[in-house]
């Protein structure tokens, strides 16, 4: 039970804020500055595209959390990090699939609501994470996991998978 509580706390304090609380705040408190789809047809297309993108991001995020718990023996939170390097599943193709999953959820929300503010929040989220990964996360992983992380970093791209062949 304590293990589940650790993961729930990390999820509630980090991705839940990014994917639920900030978008809700933007959609409601900043509505006068925001956009919506200009026609019922565009609204329907946005919802049809946004829903599966959001769900795919949620599935990717959940898969990454499970890998952190089972193989990494830690959480996504910086105060309770993994104890083992996770380099399987989606981590075999990109080093940051959890962030990709969260970004996909934000993209799905932006399309679903036709919201320029949510699109801007997605951009801020991606830029902040990229910066944090360069300045803090990657050097910290190298210190924690040493040569194993250096080899992993050389083999696996940060954000976009390499083309096969």
CATH architecture: Up-down Bundle
Would you tell me the overall average pLDDT?
91
Major sheet characteristics: none
Query: Any idea what the shape is?
Result: globular
Order of helices and strands: HHHHHH
CATH class: Mainly Alpha
**DSSP strand content:** under 5%
Taking the alpha carbons of the first and last residues, their distance comes to 45 Å
Classification by helices and strands? mainly alpha
How many structural domains can be distinguished in the coordinates? Answer: 1
Uncertain residue segments: none
Radius of gyration: 17 Å
CATH topology: Four Helix Bundle (Hemerythrin (Met), subunit A)
Total DSSP E strands = 0
Fraction of helical residues: 55-70%
Number of helices: 6
Multimerization status? single chain
Provide an overview of this structure.
This protein is mainly α and 165 residues long. Helix content is 69%, strand content 0%. Helix 3 (40-70) packs antiparallel against helix 4 and helix 4 runs antiparallel to helix 5 (116-145). The radius of gyration is 17 Å and the shape is globular.
Keywords:
165 residues; Four Helix Bundle (Hemerythrin (Met), subunit A); mainly alpha; 69% helix
